[in-house]
């Protein structure tokens, strides 16, 4: 049964975020345009000092190829930094719990995961990662990877307003993303989490007596600050293995909603930042409308599937209509609506944090989450999610223009064969990175997920096993980070395959976005004419929404039929 008070809590959450988004989006737009903005007096000298230290001329704008080279250089150094920390933990500082170093294949997967904003883990956080690794490697990566996504988004959008062939300076965008956006918001989020009961301390652990007369060691640390940038920056990696299901990381229904708000804040502000940068008020509304339409429907479907009766339990004695749902794996301190809102927001915004056991969800619930990762854009991760939705829009304008005989153009920029070719690369590489490794894992016998049947014999879970492997690679290809578990994914195959999928799933779309941006930045801005498709309208918003849903369905319907749809009896 759905608690109406928890439903109102989710409504208030969305209302507050949507009330803040226009102001935050306008501020973000002013920051990237170099206009006067709040904090200039403090951050200006800091940024100028950083530019001098890096040897960067902030007035110099880069072409797309140079921008991409700088991005790959910074992210490559970040990957190496993470890899060495994971590999050499025993020899490095801040290791009070004396954890060992990781195997090279696990270090490869972990470094790839945190560099790419995925934060998909194959390790146990409490026992396999030192406090120094979390603070000096992982948390640094959370800021840099999120700032990389924001930089790509603003370079992509900026190209629609330029005609000199440049899209901005990556180093300047990276610095300003951290100083003006991520650091202040993460600090505010940390304070909010501390006030809601999340611990923030440098103490590694505390030992307390239990009711049974024994003792229990509880792992502590700067959980609030770590969780804040994790949720805000679409990272999702938790201080604890249980992630947001841990009572220390997410103590109450109120903290659960607050954390969902952190995940929504930047993605829902992106359309307003877009409108500010292109200097066209209201032009971001189709993006916002599409995102909210898909997100709200997904949330309603998720709650419906989780509240529905499980037909496999209908014949069991003592199971009534009121208890015959899918409560297994959900924390009792959260309501159904509150827990569902958190989980859907997390997956659809490519954060990947979990407050429930995803493997225990109904097949319909798993299908809803998979669809969010298939789209990658409703709202998607910080920066790159909006870039993917902008790519969908370019394709929608191109197809719509051809259907009605109008010139395919957007904001005065013509959309030609080259733009469409790279947009197709961006959208087609995603299913390729999911389906190929999933097929190899299943056909090659690497999916070791089994159930113990009568007599102690192991029996495959068939469709559920396939869905688990599919979810694994979908999450990695989408740079999401959530996992269904249980699955034996700490093997060299899953570590190496998953690491490669995350790297390709991150940087091939970025390559496509920046290439499209480079082509746009060389074009003149044409004045609107009678053949220009009007994109700032409710009609176009509906068209864009249906375009995203239909194209995603065409790409992924066959594989969904093999997994969750077959479990639902279709």
Characterization of this structure:
- With 570 residues, the chain is mainly alpha-helical.
- It has two domains: 278 residues, no CATH class; 186 residues, no CATH class.
- It is 61% helix and 4% strand.
- The protein is built from 18 helices and eight strands.
- It has a two-stranded antiparallel ribbon.
- A hairpin with a 2-residue loop joins strand 5 and strand 6.
- The longest helix is centred in the first third of the chain and has 30 residues.
- The radius of gyration is 23 Å and the shape is globular.
Report strand %.
Answer: under 5%
SSE order, one letter for each helix or strand:
HHEHHHHEHEEHHHHHHEEHEEHHHH
Low-confidence stretches: 450-460
Determine the N-to-C terminus distance. Answer: 26 Å
Strand order of the largest sheet: 1-2
Mean pLDDT across every amino acid position? 89
Largest sheet: 2 strands, antiparallel
The amount of helix comes to 55-70%
Number of domains: 2
Determine the number of helices (DSSP H or I, runs of at least 4 residues): 18
Number of strands: 8
Radius of gyration: 23 Å
- The helix/strand class is mainly alpha
What characteristic shape results from the CA principal axes? globular
């Amino acid at each position: 049964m759905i608690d109406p008070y928890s439903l109102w809590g989710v409504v208030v959450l969305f209302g507050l975020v949507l009330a803040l988004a226009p102001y935050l989006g306008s501020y973000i737009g002013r920051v990237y345009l170099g206009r006067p903005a709040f904090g200039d007096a403090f951050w200006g000298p800091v940024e100028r000092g950083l530019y001098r230290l890096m040897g960067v001329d902030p007035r110099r704008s880069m072409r797309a190829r140079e921008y991409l080279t700088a991005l790959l250089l910074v992210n490559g150094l970040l990957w190496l930094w993470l890899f060495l920390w994971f590999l050499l933990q025993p020899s490095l500082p801040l290791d009070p719990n004396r954890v060992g170093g990781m195997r090279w294949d696990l270090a490869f997967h972990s470094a790839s995961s945190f560099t790419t904003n995925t934060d998909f883990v194959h390790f146990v956080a409490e026992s396999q990662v030192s406090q120094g690794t979390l603070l000096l490697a992982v948390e640094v990566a959370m800021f840099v990877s999120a700032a990389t996504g924001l930089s790509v988004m603003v370079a992509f959008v900026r190209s629609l307003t330029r005609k000199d062939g440049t899209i901005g300076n990556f180093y300047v965008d990276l610095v300003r993303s951290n100083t003006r956006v991520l650091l202040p918001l993460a600090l505010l989020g940390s304070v909010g989490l501390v006030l809601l009961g999340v611990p923030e301390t440098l103490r590694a652990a505390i030992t307390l007596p239990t009711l049974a007369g024994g003792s229990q060691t509880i792992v502590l640390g700067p959980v609030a600050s770590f969780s804040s940038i994790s949720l805000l920056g679409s990272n999702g990696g938790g201080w604890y293995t249980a992630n947001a299901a841990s009572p220390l990381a997410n103590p109450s229904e109120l903290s659960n909603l607050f954390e969902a708000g952190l995940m929504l804040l930047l993605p829902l502000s992106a359309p307003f930042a877009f409108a500010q940068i292109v200097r066209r008020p209201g032009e971001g509304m189709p993006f916002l409308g599409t995102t909210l339409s898909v997100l709200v429907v997904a949330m309603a479907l998720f709650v419906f599937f989780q509240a529905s009766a499980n037909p496999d339990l209908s014949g069991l004695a003592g199971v009534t209509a009121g208890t015959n749902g899918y409560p297994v794996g959900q924390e009792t301190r959260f309501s159904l609506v509150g827990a569902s809102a958190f989980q859907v927001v997390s997956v659809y915004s490519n954060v990947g944090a979990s407050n429930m056991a995803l493997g225990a969800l109904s097949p319909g619930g798993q299908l809803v989450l998979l669809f969010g990762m298939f789209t990658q854009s409703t709202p998607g991760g910080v920066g790159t999610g909006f870039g993917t939705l902008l790519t969908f829009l370019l394709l929608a304008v191109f197809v719509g223009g051809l259907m009605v005989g109008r010139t395919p153009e957007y904001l005065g920029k013509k959309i030609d064969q080259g733009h469409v070719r790279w947009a197709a690369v961006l959208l087609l590489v995603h299913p390729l990175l999911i389906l190929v490794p999933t097929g190899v894992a299943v056909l090659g016998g690497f999916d070791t997920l089994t159930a113990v049947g009568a007599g102690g014999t192991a029996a495959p879970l068939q469709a559920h096993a396939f869905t688990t492997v599919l979810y694994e690679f979908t999450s990695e290809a989408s740079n999401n980070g959530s996992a269904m578990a249980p699955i034996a994914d700490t093997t060299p195959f899953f570590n190496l395959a998953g690491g490669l999928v995350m790297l390709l799933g991150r940087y091939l779309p970025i390559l496509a976005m920046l290439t499209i941006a480079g082509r746009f930045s060389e074009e003149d801005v044409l004045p609107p004419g009678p053949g220009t498709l009007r994109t700032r309208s409710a009609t176009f918003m509906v068209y864009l929404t249906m375009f995203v849903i239909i194209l995603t369905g065409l790409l992924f319907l066959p594989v969904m039929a093999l997994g969750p749809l077959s479990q639902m009896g279709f």
